[in-house]
Amino acid sequence: MIVRVANGRERWHMLRSPGWLSALAREGHPRFANLKSYAGANAGTNEVIAFARDEIGGAFTWDEIARFRERWKRPLVLKGIMHPADAARAIELGIDGIWVSNHGGRQIDHGLGSLDTLPEIVDVVNGRAKIIVDGGVQRGGDILKALALGADVVALGRLQGWGLAAGGEAGLVRMLEILEDELVSAMGLIGLTGMDKLTRKYVCAAEPVTDAHEMSSWVNMPVARII
Ligand SMILES: Cc1cc2nc3c(=O)[nH]c(=O)nc-3n(C[C@H](O)[C@H](O)[C@H](O)COP(=O)(O)O)c2cc1C
Description:
The chain has 227 residues and is α/β, with parallel strands linked by helices. The protein has helices spanning 8-15, 18-27, 33-39, 45-55, 62-71, 84-92, 114-125, 140-148, 158-189, 223-226; strands at 77-81, 97-100, 130-133, 153-154. Strands 1-2-3-4 form a four-stranded parallel beta sheet. Strand 3, helix 8 (140-148) and strand 4 (153-154) form a beta-alpha-beta unit. It binds flavin mononucleotide.
């Protein structure tokens, strides 16, 4: 097990958060709450991880998905679809929701982003299932891009963790309010009067965002204003 010692800045943040520190002392590190009870009443973090590895592993097959489909009569969503051929196969098996996701890009470096593959998947699915997408959504404008490229639903991963960590339930609500404000603002800035008018034409491929251009007004702002 690798243990990283907090650096000075992190320690300073911890000391300024006595509520968080006392919860950590009381409860220990966060664990997979949804798996914990299955791993055994007194399972520690390592046991829960070992349980997840043994039970879930990496060997999830199409046969298993077909078996789940047969047994589960309610809507079934498949998360982690990143290729149109997989989307087509899921549709053949009767999956109701295609969740386009690279799991936050945490599993493999240099893989495609969800938005890179979303349009092709939307085309293959062609309305036969709902399309959910996640990965890297951090601004209201990101939601707009995903919807423009054909997603029905946009999901959030880390943002909700950050909102919760920053302010608990209120932090989560505030995060959603900020996203909503940004979304409405982005709609205004691109002249969009309703989601029903949003199409792929609003998005174009571009080089990844880098530092601000030297002519950007951001560059010439006093540092205090940028921060
Ligand atoms: C700490 C962490 C653990 C995650 N664990 C899982 C997991 O067990 N199964 C899964 O399908 N996705 C998992 N994900 C991926 C999220 O469900 C989601 O797809 C991803 O976080 C979305 O990207 P975003 O964080 O940029 O919004 C995890 C993500 C994080 C940050």
